[in-house]
Amino acid sequence: MNTRQDNRPRIVVGVDGSPSSKEALAWAVRQASLVDGVIDAVIAWEYPQFYGSFGWMPPTGQDLNLEGAAAQALDDTIATVTGAEPAVDIHSRVEYGTPAGVLLAAAEGASLLVLGNRGHGGFAEALLGSVGQHCTQHSPCPIVIVRGQDQSAAPGPAVASHTQ
User: Which residues contact 65 (CB under 8 A, 6 or more apart)?
Assistant: First the structure.
């Protein structure tokens, strides 16, 4: 297993505040406690695509603080899932870029990448969202896709694979 310098397994979890990502974080916390691991909880942010499509520049200053909103969503999700005192070490990472790209970069050298099966975007009927689909095809480490409690199948990992 690839680990941090302190020799504990590093588990990367994609968080976007969706119910599915909360399930993924909860699963990762349980797994990290079993293997004495640490968690990198990662959220990606980027300017909406329509800014570039129309040649518009995004607003500056306090009007549009997407990075701050992403950081707040990450902090809120961690607090909701783990409470005030998490059972494992959780490092928050707020990164600029597409979700799939950010997660794949964060997963370099990790022991495991954990994602919910669907985030905020896409079609509710899809078994696996576009970010999860991309990450399962390109992950540099083993990956677990966690299905949410509201799915018709039993909760827990739905897909576990190692791609390279």
Answer: none
How far is 98 from 132, CA to CA, in rounded Å?
Answer: 12
What does the radius of gyration of the chain's CA atoms come to, in whole angstroms?
A: 16
Cα separation of 155 and 4, whole Å?
Answer: 30
Residue 101: HSE in the Cβ half-sphere, 13 Å Cα cutoff: 6
pLDDT tens string 119-147: 555 555 556 788 999 999 999 999 999 98
112-116, strands of its sheet edge to edge = 90-96, 38-45, 10-14, 112-116, 143-147, 156-161
Alpha carbons 32 and 39: distance in angstroms, whole number: 7
Dihedral sign (CA 127, 19, 84, 70): positive
Residues 6+ apart with CB under 8 A from 2: 9, 10, 109, 110, 111, 141
* pTM exceeds 0.70 for this model: yes
Are 40 and 93 in contact by the 8 Å Cβ rule? The answer is yes
